[in-house]
Each structure stands twice: as C-alpha cells, then as structure tokens.
Specification:
The chain has a domain at about 15-140: NADH:ubiquinone oxidoreductase Nqo5 subunit (Beta Polymerase, domain 2). The chain has four helices and nine strands, in the order H-E-E-H-E-E-E-E-H-E-E-E-H. The protein has helices at about 15-20, 45-55, 115-125, 230-235, and strands at about 25-30, 35-40, 60-70, 75-85, 90-95, 105, 130, 160-165, 170-175. The strands form three sheets. A five-stranded mixed beta sheet has the order 1-2-5-4-3. The mean pLDDT is about 85.
Length: about 250
C-alpha cells in the first residue's frame, strides 16, 4: 500500500521503548503500513498516553479514528494517532471495545481529544467515560443510529424534506417507492430479440430521390462597347461643326 506522504523510517528499538514506557498495559505491537502500531489495555489508555507524552515526547494527538469489525466480540477499535515533533516520529495506539464498555477519555492528557472523541461517539456509538461534553457533533439533532457501523443501512432510517404545507423541514421514515421494472441482463453487443422503443423509426421508407439539379445558365455575350479613344486619336483634327441657322427676332412673320 502506497503512502500519501514521505515515509520516515522507524528508529531502531522504538518498539522496545514503547513497551518499556507502557509496561503491563502493553498487549501487542508491530509495524504496519510503515508506521509503528501498538495495542494496549482499554482501561489504561489514559495512563498509556500520559507515559508516551511525558517519556517518549509524543506531544501531539493528531487524530482519533474508529473501526468496526462486526465479527469480533469487541467489534470496535479506537485508534489514537500520535506525533512526536522533536523525534519526527508517528505512533498508533489501539484499544478494543464494544457497544456497552466505555473507553476512558483522553481529554485530560490531550485537550484536542474533546472533539475527536465526540466524532467517534457520533459515528460509531463508542462511549468515552469522563468526557466533559459527550454529544453528537456531525449528525443532526434527533439522529437515529451511528452511520459508520457496518450494520447501518445505506439509506438510513429517516429522511428529511421541505414541506410546502407546513413551511418547514420535516422528518419522515425512509420511503423508496419504485415502479415495477423488468431487466434483461443481455450483452449490448448481441442485440435484442424484440423491438426496442425507437426501433420503429428505422423501418421508415427511404426518402424520394431529390429533384435534378438546374441546368447551368448560358454564358453571357460580350457587350458591344464603344472603342476608347487612344492617344493617336487625340492628335487628329476634329471634324468641323455645321453652323446653326440664326434665330428670327420676335414679331417677324
């Protein structure tokens, strides 16, 4: 599995240092996806995080994630992602629980755990004992169930819509009405043995032949133009004009 960030090699003896710092709360540990991961006792998680912070300099709690394994007796895992800024090293700490057993809160060790534990509670239903304000943080008021559980239906239990009659958003049980349809899972390359909607258009008679193209127009005759006067003609003597007859004065017969 490729890592989305540059990997930093685990220092030699890091697992032994974690085991020594955790003590009897240590259950198992190893390297997974290029990072060190340990599993500890659920009831001792606050003491484990305190020891890792004070002894091995894991100053920051980056994330708390939940995982659901329905086939296990303790179906939930709560995973704490720690970062040591001074050592440039990351560590995952895991605990297991179920729907009934609470996990001690880590807010006294890392204040940032307040919102992170509320997210895990909202999505998985894991209870954190001692949390100062354990309420839902991502889902709506009155939401039923926990969406990240594997047995939670993809459609949920309720749906909301805007009611024109009540002029507000209303909650209703999920209703997915669907008309009866028949499906044939035939390959689209084989073709159907029945007429599909729209195939009747292919049976239309071919269009009538188009009208013949009009004959080309006759070529235009050259127009008889008066020849232009040339420079040679300009030097020729013009023809004498015929004298006009004098006009008779008015009053004469």
């Amino acid at each position: 599995m490729a890592s989305p960030a540059p990997l930093v090699r685990n220092p030699e003896g890091a697992l032994d240092q974690v085991r020594a710092a955790v003590g009897s709360a240590f259950i198992a540990g190893g390297e997974a996806v290029g990072e060190l991961s340990v599993t500890v006792v659920r009831e001792s998680i606050a003491d484990v995080l305190t020891a890792l912070r004070d002894t091995l300099e894991y100053q920051q709690l980056m994330e708390i994630a939940g995982v659901d394994y329905p086939e296990r007796a303790e179906r939930f895992e709560v995973v704490y992602h720690l970062l040591s800024v001074t050592r440039n090293h990351r560590l995952r700490v895991r605990v297991s629980t179920d729907e009934a057993m609470p996990v001690p809160t880590a807010t006294s060790v890392y204040p940032a755990a307040g919102w992170l534990e509320r997210e895990v509670f909202d999505m998985y239903g894991v209870v954190f004992a001692g949390h100062p304000d354990l309420r839902r943080i991502l889902t709506d008021y009155g939401f039923a169930g926990h969406p990240f559980r594997k047995d939670f239906p993809l459609t949920g239990y309720v749906e909301l819509r805007y009611s024109e009659a009540e002029k507000r958003v209303v909650y209703e049980p999920v209703s997915l009405p669907q008309d009866l349809r028949t499906f044939d899972f035939m390959s689209p390359w084989e073709g159907a043995s029945y007429v599909l909607p729209g195939d009747e258009k292919a049976a239309v008679a071919p269009p009538a032949p188009s009208a013949p193209a009009p004959a080309p127009a006759p070529a235009a005759k050259p127009s008889a133009r008066k020849p232009r006067a040339t420079k040679a003609d300009a030097g020729a003597t013009p023809a004498p004009k015929k004298p006009r007859a004098p006009r008779k004065p008015k009053g004469e017969a």
